[in-house]
Design brief:
Elements (H helix, E strand, L loop, with lengths): L1 H5 L4 E5 L6 H12 L3 E3 H9 L3 H8 L1 H17 L7 E3 L10 H8 E7 L2 H7 L14 H19 L2 E4 L5 H18 L9
Parallel strand pairs: 1-3, 1-4, 2-3, 4-5
Bound molecules: shikimate-3-phosphate (S3P).
The site of shikimate-3-phosphate has 10 residues, from loops.
Length: about 190
């Protein structure tokens, strides 16, 4: 990981559907590397002073997506002095403008999980407006097929997470990130 520390703005960016483990894997990556973890949902909640469900209720999804875009632009323009781990909200890839921004931020990893895994992991969710008052299985199936091409377009690398242990997943990402930063040429650190 030292190589990542040495390079400016070599963030590791985690993308994927709700329940794929972005936050838990992000925390494990933070522990293993000592790098700070930035959770885009948490930053937006703090900026607005409301929870995600409240933001959706009061302003709607479209406004929330604009806040995500603004945050990505801010992160690109105001480079953090050191690399960090960025865990994103599951729908951040929906806006076409966000996809190249995410790739430019750093090494972007799609944590891919099958629908049954996602269903199990979102079973007790109360803070995800897109899964409230709906047939969760149908909704996750829909989101999975709608968004798969967007994740694929955005990710530098896809990792099948299944039921793997969280530190094992984090370790695999770090190995790949180090390779990527050595051999990725323009694909890393501000490239696409
Ligand atoms: C969303 C995912 C959520 C959050 C919001 C919308 C989505 O983040 O950003 O509820 O559109 O998939 P998580 O993926 O961290 O649950």
């Amino acid at each position: 990981m030292e190589r990542l520390h040495e390079k400016p703005r070599c963030h590791i960016v985690l993308i994927g559907l709700m329940g794929c483990g972005k936050s838990t894997v992000g925390k494990a990556l933070g522990k293993l590397t000592g790098l700070p973890l930035l959770d885009t949902d948490a930053v937006i909640e703090e900026q607005v002073g409301m929870s995600i469900p409240e933001i959706f209720r009061k302003y709607g999804e479209k406004r929330f997506r604009s806040l995500e875009t603004a945050l990505l632009r801010y992160l690109l323009e105001h480079q953090a002095p050191e690399s960090c781990i960025i865990a994103t909200g599951g729908g951040i890839v929906v806006r076409p403008a966000n996809r190249p921004l995410l790739r430019r931020l750093g090494f972007t990893v799609w944590l891919h999980a099958e629908v049954p895994v996602l269903l199990q992991r979102t079973a007790h969710t109360a803070n995800r407006p897109l899964l409230q008052d709906t047939d969760r299985e149908r909704r996750i199936n829909e989101l999975s097929s709608q968004r798969a091409p967007f994740y694929a377009e955005t990710a530098h690398w896809t990792l099948e997470v299944g039921h793997s242990e969280v530190f094992e997943i984090a370790q695999r990402i770090l190995e790949r990130a180090a390779d990527f930063s050595d051999h990725g040429k323009n694909a890393f650190c501000g490239g696409v």
